[in-house]
Amino acid sequence: MESYLKLNSMQLDALREVGNIGAGNAATALSKMIGSRVEMNVPDIEILPLSELVSAAGGPEACVAGVCLRFKGEASGAILFLFPAADAEQIAATLLKKRNVKFSDELSCSALTEMVNILAGSFFNALGLFTSLHFIPTVPALCIDMAGAILGSVLYSSGMSGDYVLFIKTDFRYGDKRSLGYLYLLPEAEALQVIFNALGVKQLVE
Q: Which of 2, 54, 84, 189 is 20 to 30 Å apart from 93, CA to CA?
């Protein structure tokens, strides 16, 4: 799997296109949900070794809202979305059409979970369109904690056996606001290989 760290620009563009199509579909759904325009793009997408996962989310002690769901099918694993605390509160306030909310309260947690359900569905639809693979997601679950604790728990419970994950940084823009989110695709066994093969990512740079 070390070769995946050397994907060329064309191969990264293929992955970025999947992310951008998923983001575009999610933005359309979220726009309808909140009744105003939402724009999403994917400014950063890469394959990260496990040792760099926590730093990509702001460090092990960063307070975040994490929403995780598992998926099965021809490739299995888990998807984890992390939102920094301030971004999670801003997103929850927008979704609930309220000025001040705590991202840890019940309504905010429900709104964030529903949002991730939409994001994950859009991502899987885009990935399925490009790969012809079928993905069956489970119901998402939300946890609020430090980034290191959430990532450690998800990696342990997901049974992930690979050394690398697909990392997608998402940029949300709505009204005059902007929020960031981090998507981690945590594959089981050869799931990342199956997805890459289906994407046509076979000719790797030495």
A: 54
Within a domain: 40: yes
Specify if 205 maps to a domain: no
CATH code where residue 141 lies: 3.40.1550.10
Note whether 86 and 156 are within 8 A (CB). no
Q: Which residues, at least 6 apart from 131, have a Cβ–Cβ distance to it below 8 Å? A: 195, 198, 199
Residue 179 lies in a domain: yes
Judged against a pLDDT cut of 80, whether residue 163 lies above it is answered with no
What is the pLDDT, as a whole number, of residue 146? Answer: 92
pTM above 0.70, yes or no: yes
d(CA 45, CA 171) in angstroms, rounded, equals 12
Assigned domain for 204 exists: no
Residue ranges making up the domain that contains 153: 2-199
Cβ neighbours around 139 below 10 Å, total: 8
